[in-house]
Amino acid sequence: MNLWTTGEVAKQRGISVRTLRYYDQIKLLKPSFRDENGKRFYAEEDLIKLEKIIILKKLSLPLDDIHEVLEKLTYKQILMSHYNYLREQQAKLEMSISHTTSLIHMLDLNEQLSWEKISTIVYHAEENNNKKWLDYFEKDEQEFLQRTMPKLNNHNEQTQAYMSFLHRIEWCIKRDIAPESEEALQIVSTLMAFAQDDFQGNTTLMDKFWEIRKLPVEDTGLFPISDEVLSFVERAMDHLEREEDLY
């Protein structure tokens, strides 16, 4: 039979000798053996019991509660509880990453963020308002858009490209560059070509999304874009269409 001393167990599991002695004192985990000098030795079943205690502590259970449930729950039941706990923590972490990424993208467009914009991203996202816009589409359209539309909380090339377009349009607006100017038309023309690829040539769906894009953010939950930017793009697109009609 393999036996481990208090020091060996403490080192192996990264806990203090004092903690193990305290567990022994409160009869939470008593070592199976003691020699004539009172030295503690832990058997394999003691180590399994210790693992259960460590997991239950990670679930924020007080020692009194651990003492009560320790013998009632199997090791698998405790592991499943820990698994569910970790999944909950993972979901919270992913949500935090999503919010932080969104705020980074917002700062790419604005040097300062107002509380209104921060709350739109963080609190609206927590309420899943970013899915409201899907209600305007049919089921097959929803599935297509969820696969293809850029997501503010991603750092992929597609999202970065759209953020770059928005940044360039903001730059034009700040410098009073007209939407009908050659520089602006080039930006919007490239943006439209990029969108055509994402919508896989489905201009009807793209036009439908654009109309929904212009609705109030509180109605759609979409990434907030200023009325100035939307108006700028709209004017540039109208100008491009008129030019195409001449040829």
UniProtKB/TrEMBL annotation:
Keywords: DNA-binding
Pfam families reported in the protein's UniProt record: MerR
GO molecular function: DNA binding; DNA-binding transcription factor activity
The name this protein goes by in its record: MerR family transcriptional regulator
Gene3D superfamilies xrefs: 1.10.1660.10
Residue ranges constituting the HTH merR-type domain according to the UniProt record: 3-72
Domain of life where this protein originates: Bacteria
